[in-house]
# Entry
Amino acid sequence: MSDIAIHVENLGKQYCLGHQSKEKYKSFRDEIAKGAQSIKQRILPWGDRSRKQNDHTFWALNDLSFEVKQGDRIGIIGHNGAGKSTLLKILSRITEPTKGEIRIRGKVASLLEVGTGFHPELSGRENIFLNGAILGMGKAEIAHKFDEIVAFAEVEKFLDTPVKRYSSGMYVRLAFAVAAHLEPEILVVDEVLAVGDIAFQKKCLGKMEDVGREGRTVLFVSHNMATLERLCPKALVLNHGQLMFQGAAEEGIKLYMDQFGQPNTATAKSASYSELHQMGLCEPTVELIENGKNIDLEVSVAVESQREQKGVGISIALFTQTGNRVAGIGPRLHRKMLPMFKGKLVQKFQFLAIDEKLAGGNYLISLSLRRPQVEIIVDLPYILSFNLTPKIIYPDGVPYCYRDFGTVLLKPDITISAPQQVISLV
Amino acid sequence: MTSSGVSELRISAGRSHRQYWQDLWSYRELFYFLAWRDILVRYKQTMIGVVWALLRPFLTMVVLSVVFGSLAKLPSEGGAPYPILVFSGMLPWQFFSNSLTGASNSLISNANLISKVYFPRLIVPTSAVIVSFVDFLVSVIILMGLMIWYNFVPSWHILTLPVFVAIAFAASMGAGLWLATLNVQYRDFRYIVPFIVQFGLYISPVGFSSSVVPEQWRWLYSLNPMVGVIDGFRWAILGGDTPLHWQGFALSTSLVLVLLGFSIHYFRAYEKTFADVI
# Structure
């Protein structure tokens, strides 16, 4: 029991949807009106009593139980709305749970947003003290770490400038630097590293690794699987407020990818139709075909047209999970215009040869129907996705997967290199 | 501070943390920092800076003295010059009204803090009251200046002033906490508070002496918690020519204490939902 840092049991958090989505704030007048209504309902038995409570509530977390050992670094994974941020907010005592219990041993520091409590009118120096105090440091402690913080943030020259005149990079650096020098037993970090330039991100990650190495417990939320895998050996996967998986990070990420990144062969239901042009795209599918050293990607999509039209073609683009464009081709390049037709036509594309060195991970495909250099008729952004398993390359059997280069060869004969991703930090 | 590793924290629905007051103590420096921030920010990018802190109460005092003393010709208490009478009432009133305005808006204007960081929320409105208290101390300088100018020597009563300052503090905290909580839930109070402050200036003995009030209305009049506070200030500062209306004072003061107790309780009850509602 003594090595358990966090113990969560049957945790649930309910939010009221009605108030928050319809009226931004409760107003006194509405409350009085509502009060009168409920009195009326109580007094008059024929009033509408059957108003269901369930319509207005939503469980952001439901029946969540898990344990975290002291010194564990755990990544929390889940799609948007899975309850990650709610969990962190409850753990850091910003909001209280609706049911269940949490037991925490040790001081918790949470970093849910970079620069909370910074005041734009105050100078960098003043903000270090203010922010430190808000995050729970004492004045003496801040003064002691002051030089270290300034050096980490690289803002020596601008210490006496109001932070409203800082560049956004400087602002973020300073904010992270203060937070990074907290020394809690349990550190809770929401996705805050997505800001700042690459050099600084690298520095932040390094700092967080240090924190972990010192035997502190770290809970980390990120959508960047590469960062998460590097920082956390273990993972929790949340799905609609419930725990789906707890265990090794690698396994958790794979599970998450399979679940939400959709399987290798996917059929998207979405379709898009333009009334104006009387044309549309539907039934897009993607298939991966192993082909020796390469993987062929076959994308097909159907085109619907109510009248015969000339000079229309399909363009296709491939993106990484984070939205970086890897490759793309349109009618101006492939010169395969659709024939004049009326009705439905299935068009097949082949991304020939994704070579084995392309970084493993989730990729997204966008499709669009367009008249080259004139207009986009319909657009299906990120409509398909597929997952590429990274290959082990070394002949001596040492596992290694390429993460930062590789090519996608597009038919007919265009080769486009994958952009350097954030993963290049490694 | 980090060595308190053995302590176990339990978080569950409806449970008020036993560590709350302990937390309040360990975050004590935040009272100072938030107040420091607000004071620092207020006079940034102003030309005359801190002079505003002196100028504002001084001008208000001049206006009130002219209107009530010279134009309406209301009587002073004992032999005290009218400006000193006005100022000894204005000191607690300004403190109270600034606290009320500051505290009631404090949670809303720090919404980003409340929804992203944990600390005992009580610190936010309290810091706003502390800011007003600093203003109050600055105004005391003006009072001393006035006393020198009019060659006015206070009696031994002045030694009791800290007691009345404490009551003024309690009244400010009581009303401030309550309105701050209400303001989080119902933004209507953003409009109600300035009205209370404006209205209060006329129903409290700021521009006039309580002796003007007819005896049969005295009880009703003392229901205003600021009446006791202001009368106490007058009694302490102006000296003992006019005796304090003790029954009225006791009523006002007990109302202040009830208000404070109720407000802390109310604030604590709603505090946990602030992050969700704000």
